[in-house]
Amino acid sequence: MKFKIFGTQIYVSFLFSAVIAFMLATDKTGLVIPTLFASLIHEAGHLFAMWVCECQPKSIRLIPASVQITRGFSAKPQGELAVSLCGPMANLIVFAVLIVNYIFFKNINVLSFAILNLILCIFNLLPVNGLDGGTLLTILLSKNTDLYRAQGIVRIITAVMSAVVFLLGVYLWTCGKLNISVFIVAVYLLMCCMLRM
């Protein structure tokens, strides 16, 4: 499905829609909708920074496990840092506001959504390829070395983290505490390792 909003081409893949529909249909925890909403807040933070830095998105592609934003032109390094930081910062701001709300009103649903935003913020700041933390680390490293070497360092960190998470999954499995989500994260990190930044 393709459509345009404010001159930005939006593409939603069939597989993305199918995965979301499957998650909603099989969700027994009630976390899918809050997670999707927290992800929307995260991406809105990136889009806000792009418009402020005057590097509006040319297209947005929604595919399984990823939102790919293509810009018409690149921002300056400071703008690139701002764009990368504003997604996690949006989640962090929501977390702070909701924690204050929870202190006064003691609503457990508010606390759950606050923690979900904090987790999403921390996860996206991991220094791995394909996540905001990887982009930030690449920008910072490229100030002292060339871009190719900086990207190589981030890929090595991503591969190491993928291996560590996989070994953690194997350890939990041998202890009788099989957790499929740990293996999913390991595979996701491995896929990120193979991405070109």
A few lines on this structure:
By secondary structure, this protein is an alpha+beta fold.
Rg from alpha-carbon coordinates: 18 Å
Strand content: 5-15%
* Helical content class: 55-70%
Spatial arrangement of strands, main beta sheet: 1-2-3-4
Task: Specify the structural class.
Answer: alpha+beta
**Biggest beta sheet summary:** 4 strands, mixed
First-to-last CA distance = 26 Å
Count of β-strands: 4
Can you describe this structure?
By secondary structure, this protein is α+β, with helices and mostly antiparallel strands. The protein has seven helices and four strands. The protein has a four-stranded mixed beta sheet with strand order 1-2-3-4. Strand 3 and strand 4 form a beta hairpin. Helix 2 packs across helix 4 and helix 5 runs antiparallel to helix 6 (147-174). The longest helix is centred in the middle third of the chain and has 29 residues, at 77-105. The protein is globular. The mean pLDDT is 84.
Features:
single chain, 197 residues, alpha+beta, 7 helices
What's the arrangement of secondary structure elements?
Layout lengths: L1 E4 L2 E5 L1 H13 L5 H21 L4 E7 L2 E6 L5 H29 L2 H17 L7 H10 L5 H28 L5 H15 L3
Parallel strand pairs: 2-3
Antiparallel strand pairs: 1-2, 3-4
